[in-house]
Amino acid sequence: MTGEMILFIGRRTLETGLLLSAPVLIVALVCGVVVSLFQAVTSMRDMTLGVVVKIAGVGVTLLIAGGWMLQVALGFTREIFDAMTMITQ
């Protein structure tokens, strides 16, 4: 295994991790900002409101994007196993 191969696998791992986490993190961020603005405008100070909305948003996001996320993760796994078989030959 060369150093270039190790760097490629590491870079590909980070890219895949960021790609898989991006939809969930973006939805959680948007939900948090919207709930914070709503609470600031209405002077509500309920801490559970933000958590409930984030959990619901993340759940819906996982239902919608879950299949795509699974395909990306499986493709990455196949790529890694193919790379491992090339190394051992």
Structural notes for this entry:
Helix content is 92%, strand content 0%. With 89 residues, the chain is mainly alpha-helical. The protein is elongated, with a radius of gyration of 19 Å. The mean pLDDT is 92. The chain has one domain. The chain has 2 helices and no strands.
What series of H and E elements makes up the topology? HH
Largest sheet: none
Would you identify the regions where 5 or more consecutive residues have pLDDT less than 50? Answer: none
Count every helix, treating DSSP H or I runs of 4 or more residues as helices: 2
Class per helix and strand makeup: mainly alpha
Based on CA inertia axes, which overall geometry fits?
elongated
The radius of gyration over CA amounts to: 19 Å
Give the assembly state of these chains: single chain
- In whole angstroms, the N-to-C terminal distance is 11 Å
Mean pLDDT: 92
How many domain regions? Answer: 1
State the helicity in percent bands. Answer: over 70%
Percent of residues in beta strands:
under 5%
Number of strands: 0
